[in-house]
Design goal:
Elements: H1 8-15, E1 25-33, E2 38-45, E3 58-64, E4 67-75, E5 81-88, E6 94-97, E7 112-119, E8 128-142, E9 146-159, E10 165-180
Parallel strand pairs: 3-10
Antiparallel strand pairs: 1-2, 1-10, 3-4, 4-5, 5-7, 6-8, 7-8, 8-9, 9-10
């Protein structure tokens, strides 16, 4: 079963900022089907942390090794979160096609998107682990401090216990995030 360990380098880098957080306001929104369907909407400043914060909504981006990353989180009850992660092989304007084999946390450059629902932040439990297997991520604006774009595609969701899967799609998606330094 596919499990996700969310960009530890990113979270470690943000934990080095002061107690007021890195002051990186952003937003990440999309409509999805599968895993109950609904709307994912994360916005706000990413706080200073060494683990995924569970009490606030936030979205932020960063660039590392020639790739762009966008991460957004919304709080759930019991210290759990819904977490969306985009990783794409470009830092300039244009489109990158989703790689169905993309490992969001892997060492190999790729383009992918994952949605983790009711996630505990440790990479070991959640209600659904969803990922796109086709589609694209489009970077429409980029500067040294901000990135904007959109994405859409289809894929699948696996229940947290790894038993059943369902079709997953993301549409009406947009991100507008500050780029944090690593």
């Amino acid at each position: 079963m596919r499990r996700v360990l969310v960009s530890v380098v990113f979270f470690g880098a943000l934990s080095c900022s002061d107690s007021s957080g890195p002051d990186v306001r952003g937003s990440l929104t999309f409509t999805y089907t599968g895993a109950g369907g609904g709307t994912f909407s994360a916005s706000g400043d990413a706080p200073s942390f060494s683990a995924i914060p569970t009490g606030t909504s936030w979205a932020v981006g960063y660039v590392r090794a020639g790739e762009s990353h966008v991460v957004g989180s919304t709080p759930r009850s019991g210290g759990l979160v819904d977490l969306a992660v985009l990783r794409f092989e470009r830092t300039t304007l244009g489109a990158a096609n989703i790689d169905p084999e993309c490992n969001i946390d892997g060492n190999v450059s790729c383009t992918g998107m994952e949605l983790l629902l009711n996630f505990n932040g440790n990479g070991d439990t959640g209600d659904y682990f969803c990922h796109l297997t086709s589609g694209s991520i489009i970077l429409t604006e980029v500067s040294s401090s901000r990135a904007k774009g959109m994405f859409s595609g289809t894929g699948n969701c696996i229940e947290g216990i790894g038993e059943a899967s369902s079709v997953f799609s993301a549409s009406d998606a947009a991100f507008d995030v500050a780029l944090s330094d690593l």
